[in-house]
């Protein structure tokens, strides 16, 4: 044997005859002394076929999660003693079963490729280093020993399924192919047990390395699945507080069934009644915790609904927003009109200010020109002074005189300006007072016209003229008013006219009182006449009623007479018939009946004439009454017109 290979083998053997590769942690756990399950051994959910063609790929998940497989009990009562271990009903030959479609599959991986072999070795080495097994090195994988291969293979198989029955005393040739068939290795038909005698040989190591690489990938997939927290793991502790997945409900149901079944196995007949209380309470608390958030959301939504309902009722009871908007629109329109007026005023002020600024600029330019002229005048005077050769005293005296004269001139100008302003103010006052006087004179003339005092006046004021005219162009104040004198002529005349009008008014008032008294008397007489008219109308109505009664009575009597005449005619006809039958005795009776008929006809005629005479009489009475009332009313109207005139 190669000494290098022997040294590697010795480094991997902590004890004589055994490999230094540790077993997985799940393989070192002691088997608990519990009842053996009646279910078949659990399969790993990560058995997969390494297939390169996509059309032949099969799912890596089993048909059913092994955690959800139910255990079937044999007939009879389950023993209560926990120390009694039940035997498994799993068939011994089931471990070697493999799908029939894997018998003819061909491995398409480039196992003979050096680069691919290096990649597989790196993947295997990374897996063991991540698992914390530093005894596996690259040299171990390059120069593999039989016991190292056995240790690596056992570790990977137990990592995938800790319950797989590997026998450390049996040879690897006996357990290699059944284990791969159990794990559903897709190329198990191409494996030869003779390769295990020298696993590092050139014809056997690529295939064995591919098997180890496939098992490592399967372990990585299993670890990734266990760390993914997928609901199919059926771990109740990983279920969130709020869940809707069916797998989460199934996990809680399985956890409940497991707890109940464990309590039932550990209990006796006496306390079997209260077994389901604790699992039920735990399950109810878990679902209550799930529904807690939903209840909070529901309460919050109800609160929002109540707030929205209150807000809706408030909006419904209050005025419409459009009414408020219309009111605000009206206010804004009013404010807009006010602002427009203010803007117009400001525009007018702006124009006035612009004009004022232009005037001030013109005045400033004029002042500048005046200043320039004054400077030129000063220079001219300075030249004159220099030319005249005056002494400083004379210049000072002339300057003083000039300043004095200038101040006097300025004072006079100011007085003239003040006088001019006073004259302007007086003219304005005179104009205003003249306008007020003209308005007063117009009112005075209108009053004279309304009082009919325009000339010529009635006697004894024939020669008096009360008209006045304003002459604003007169220089003499006494000639401002044209017409008679106010104090001597107009005022006494107006007083006399007022006195005469007052006396006339008093006489008219006394006449009015007298006429009112007469009118009251006439009104009383009219009321009496109205009462009499009412009584006469009542009498007329009663006469009409009597006439109607007479007419009705006459009509009834005429009807009775007509009926009687009809009856008499019938009797007469009957009498004629009887006379024809009985002879002469009937003529007498016929004559009597004719007399009676004639009397009835005359009676009806008299009643008709009496009714007509009564109607004519009543009509004449009514016509006479109406004419009398009309005459009285005409006399009353004529009297009232005469009194008013």
From TrEMBL:
Gene Ontology biological process terms, A to Z: attachment of mitotic spindle microtubules to kinetochore; cell division
Gene3D superfamilies (UniProt xref): Ncd80 complex, Ncd80 subunit
Domain Kinetochore protein Ndc80 CH residues, every copy: 94-224
Pfam families found in the cross-reference section: Ndc80_HEC
InterPro entries membership: Kinetochore_Ndc80 (IPR005550), Ndc80_CH (IPR055260), Ndc80_sf (IPR038273)
Ranges where the record places region Disordered: 1-107
Domain of life of the organism encoding this protein: Eukaryota
GO cellular component: Ndc80 complex; nucleus
Subcellular location: Chromosome, Centromere, Kinetochore; Nucleus
Transmembrane parts of this sequence: none
Coiled coil stretches, renumbered: 284-318, 395-429, 505-571
Alphabetical UniProt keywords: Cell cycle, Cell division, Centromere, Chromosome, Coiled coil, Kinetochore, Mitosis, Nucleus
Stretches with biased composition (Polar residues): 44-72
Primary location: nucleus
Function summary: Acts as a component of the essential kinetochore-associated NDC80 complex, which is required for chromosome segregation and spindle checkpoint activity.
Subunit structure: Component of the NDC80 complex.
Family indicated by similarity: Belongs to the NDC80/HEC1 family.
Protein name: Kinetochore protein NDC80
């Amino acid at each position: 044997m190669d000494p290098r290979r022997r040294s590697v083998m010795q480094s991997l053997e902590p004890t004589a005859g055994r490999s230094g590769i540790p077993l997985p942690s799940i393989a070192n756990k002691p088997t608990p002394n519990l009842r053996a399950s009646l279910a078949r051994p659990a399969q790993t959910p990560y058995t997969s076929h390494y297939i390169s063609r996509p059309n032949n790929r099969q799912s890596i998940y089993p048909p059913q999660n092994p955690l959800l497989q139910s255990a079937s009990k044999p007939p009879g009562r389950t023993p209560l003693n926990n120390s009694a271990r039940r035997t498994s009903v799993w068939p011994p030959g089931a471990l070697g079963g493999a799908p029939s479609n894997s018998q003819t599959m061909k491995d398409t991986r480039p196992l003979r490729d050096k680069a691919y072999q290096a990649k597989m070795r790196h993947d295997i080495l990374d897996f063991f280093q991540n698992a914390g097994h530093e005894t596996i090195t690259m040299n171990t994988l390059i120069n593999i020993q039989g016991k190292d291969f056995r240790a690596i293979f056992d570790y990977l198989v137990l990592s995938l399924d800790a319950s797989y029955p590997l026998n450390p005393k049996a040879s690897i040739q006996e357990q290699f192919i059944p284990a791969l068939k159990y794990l559903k290795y897709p190329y198990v038909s191409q494996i030869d047990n003779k390769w295990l005698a020298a696993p590092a040989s050139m014809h056997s190591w690529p295939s064995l390395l591919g098997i180890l690489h496939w098992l490592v990938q399967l372990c990585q997939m299993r670890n990734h699945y266990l760390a993914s927290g997928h609901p199919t793991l059926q771990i109740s502790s990983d279920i969130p507080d709020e869940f809707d997945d069916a797998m989460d409900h199934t996990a809680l149901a399985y956890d409940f069934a497991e707890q109940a079944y464990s309590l039932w196995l550990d209990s006796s007949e006496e306390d079997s009644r209260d077994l389901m209380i604790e699992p039920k309470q735990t399950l109810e608390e878990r679902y209550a915790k799930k529904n807690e958030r939903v209840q909070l959301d529901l309460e919050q939504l109800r609160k929002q609904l109540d707030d929205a309902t209150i807000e809706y009722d408030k909006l419904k009871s209050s005025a419409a927003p459009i009414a408020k908007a219309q009111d605000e629109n009206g206010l804004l329109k009013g404010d807009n009109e006010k602002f427009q007026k203010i803007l117009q005023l400001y525009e007018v002020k702006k124009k006035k200010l612009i004009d004022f600024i232009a005037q001030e600029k013109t005045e400033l330019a004029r002042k500048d020109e005046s200043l320039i002229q004054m400077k030129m005048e000063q220079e001219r005077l300075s030249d004159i002074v220099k030319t005249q050769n005056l002494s400083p005293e004379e210049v000072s005296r002339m300057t003083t005189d000039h300043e004095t004269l200038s101040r006097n001139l300025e004072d006079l100008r100011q007085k003239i300006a003040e006088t001019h302003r006073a004259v302007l103010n007086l003219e304005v006052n005179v104009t205003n007072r003249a306008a007020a006087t003209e308005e007063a004179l117009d009112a005075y003339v209108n009053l004279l016209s309304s009082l009919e005092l325009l000339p010529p006046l009635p006697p004894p004021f024939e020669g008096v003229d009360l008209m006045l005219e304003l002459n604003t162009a007169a220089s003499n104040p006494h000639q401002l008013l044209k017409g008679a004198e106010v104090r001597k002529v107009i005022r006494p005349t107006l007083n006399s006219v007022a006195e005469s009008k007052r006396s006339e008014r008093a006489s008219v008032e006394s006449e009015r009182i007298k006429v009112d008294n007469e009118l009251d008397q006439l009104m009383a007489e009219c009321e009496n006449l109205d009462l009499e008219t009412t009584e006469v109308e009542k009498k007329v109505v009663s006469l009409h009623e009597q006439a109607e009664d007479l007419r009705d009575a006459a009509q009834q009597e005429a009807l009775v007479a007509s009926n009687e005449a009809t009856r008499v005619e019938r009797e007469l006809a009957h009498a004629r018939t009887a006379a024809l039958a009985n002879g002469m005795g009937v003529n007498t009776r016929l004559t009597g009946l004719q007399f009676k008929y004639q009397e009835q006809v005359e009676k009806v005629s008299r009643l008709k004439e009496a009714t007509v005479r009564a109607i004519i009489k009543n009509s004449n009475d009514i016509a006479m009454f109406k004419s009398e009332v009309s005459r009285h009313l005409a006399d009353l109207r004529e009297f009232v017109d005469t009194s008013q005139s």
